[in-house]
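USER:
Class, as today's exercise, take the chain set out below, and explain how the chain folds.
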Amino acid sequence: MAARRRCRRLKKRTRRQLQGWGAVVAVVAAVWVARHWAVVWPVLVAVLATAVVGGVGWALWRAHRLAAGQDRVWRAREEARARELSMAEVDALSWQEFETYVADLCRRDGCTKVVVSGKSGDLGADVVGYLADGRKLVVQCKKYAPHRSVSSQDMQKFVGTARLEHGADVALFVTTCRSFTKAALGLALRQDIVALHRDLLGSWVKGARLETLIPLNGSGSGGGTRQHPSA
């Protein structure tokens, strides 16, 4: 108990000493500044001006960052809205019309010899054609409701036929629903299948070219590597 009191007294004494030395230093500094004011005041003015300019610059930078961020958010919302407006027309198509529409998108982007199967039993090749660089393109089209997901079973069927049955250099799975299940997307990435969900399809509909969408493939690559002779 006595040791604790001694410790408290020592702390108080040390605090008083520090306060006293601080007061002395402040007085000495004030006297020195007063004697050398002609030299000190330009420095103080320069420091103050620098602080003001720096503060204004930082505030402007922050305001610019905030405005730029809000602009990016607004643009993203507008782009998503525009895609959905376009996709509303796609949603109104029948599955046969959807396959024909995808074929038209392929032709728009320079694909040649584009053929639409338009029938069941096509082993996943709803649309077949050739990219501008000669690679063979095989497309599986799934006209699903937006809230649905492409299942692993759907992807497995396409993986099993796209290259073995149809000799695809680029295998494209395009759907009107918003997502692929985690298993389906993982299979697509491992097997080099381009997975085009609703948002990417919306961008394609709005004018993005197929060759720019192929490398996206969800979060990975999947454009195929083999070259096919020009047909």
About this structure: The two ends are 98 Å apart (CA to CA). The chain is about 60% helix and 15% strand. Residues 219-231 have pLDDT under 50 and may be disordered.
